[in-house]
């Protein structure tokens, strides 16, 4: 019963009354109340970073006041570390098209991604993955940390989204077209002077 109570309290966002917990574990309210009191005392005795308190008619886990500064710093750092929409879009392209060069990512997104790529590399979400054999451009891929943050075991767990992204052959053609110098305009052909009709010569008298 104690394990069940701990598990339920771990996932709740609001204080839970004893009656609600008793129904969840299928035990009398008296037994549940006694177990909650015992757990609360044990957490305090062991010096845990959290405690179990009854507030407002319900039981819930709370962080201890002495750990408040650490919790606050962690929460604030997490808010500041959130990626921008541009970074998320760029990361998605890298994830689905890796290994991929910056030029290809820029071509897919239609904007320069140099700054965003530097941010993703600094965050440990993207890393270098060698170079392209033809263009010698640096290639990039997602990291193991990316998988951890996304809660995935491997890239095979990515949702089926790749078919909606441009094909690499199309991107190659676009990049090749962008790298070609503009074709020189051919000089306009000179207008030909129309030949004057031949005039009949004077009639000769026999």
Overall CATH class of the largest domain: Mainly Alpha
Relative helix content: 40-55%
Might you state the CATH topology name of the largest domain? Arc Repressor Mutant, subunit A
CATH superfamily of the largest domain: Winged helix-like DNA-binding domain superfamily/Winged helix DNA-binding domain
Order of helices and strands: HHHEEHHEHHEEHH
Strand order of the largest sheet: 3-5-4
The number of distinct helices, counting runs of at least 4 residues, comes to 9
End-to-end C-alpha gap: 140 Å
The fraction of residues in strands falls at 5-15%
| Tally of individual domains | 2
- What is the approximate shape? elongated
Strand segment tally = 5
CATH architecture label of the largest domain = Orthogonal Bundle
State the secondary-structure class. Answer: alpha+beta
Largest sheet: 3 strands, antiparallel
| Mean pLDDT rating | 80
Biased composition (Low complexity): 176-186
Biased composition (Acidic residues): 187-206
Protein name: SMC-Scp complex subunit ScpB
Region (Disordered): 161-206
Explain this structure.
The chain is of the alpha+beta class and 206 residues long. The chain has two domains: 2-67, Winged helix-like DNA-binding domain superfamily/Winged helix DNA-binding domain (Arc Repressor Mutant, subunit A, Orthogonal Bundle); 85-179, Winged helix-like DNA-binding domain superfamily/Winged helix DNA-binding domain (Arc Repressor Mutant, subunit A, Orthogonal Bundle). It is 48% helix and 12% strand. It has nine helices and five strands. It has helices spanning 2-11, 18-25, 29-46, 68-80, 85-97, 102-109, 114-122, 144-150, 168-179; strands at 50-55, 58-63, 100-101, 126-131, 138-142. The strands form two sheets. Strands 3-5-4 form a three-stranded antiparallel β-sheet. It has a two-stranded antiparallel ribbon with strand order 1-2. Strand 1 and strand 2 form a beta hairpin. Helix 2 (18-25) crosses helix 3 (29-46) and helix 5 (85-97) packs across helix 7. The chain is elongated. Mean pLDDT is 80; it is low at 183-206.
């Amino acid at each position: 019963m104690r394990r069940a109570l701990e598990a339920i309290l771990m996932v709740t966002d609001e204080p839970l009354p004893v009656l609600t917990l008793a129904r969840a574990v299928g035990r009398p309210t008296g037994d549940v109340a006694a177990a909650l009191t015992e757990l609360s005392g044990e957490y305090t005795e062991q010096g845990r970073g959290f405690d179990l308190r009854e507030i407002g008619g319900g039981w819930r886990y709370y962080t201890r006041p002495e750990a408040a500064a650490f919790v606050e710093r962690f929460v604030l750092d997490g808010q500041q570390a959130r990626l921008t929409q541009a970074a998320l879009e760029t990361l998605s392209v890298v994830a689905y098209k890796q290994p991929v060069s910056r030029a290809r990512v820029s071509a897919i997104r239609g904007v320069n991604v140099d700054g965003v790529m530097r941010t993703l590399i600094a965050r440990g979400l993207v890393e270098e993955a060698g170079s392209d054999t033809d263009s010698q451009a640096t290639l990039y891929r997602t990291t193991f940390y990316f998988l951890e943050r996304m809660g995935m075991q491997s890239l095979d767990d990515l949702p089926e989204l790749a078919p909606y992204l441009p094909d690499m052959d199309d991107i190659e053609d676009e990049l090749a077209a962008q790298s070609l110098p503009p074709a020189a305009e051919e000089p306009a052909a000179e207008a030909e002077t129309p030949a004057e009709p031949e005039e009949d010569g004077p009639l000769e008298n026999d």
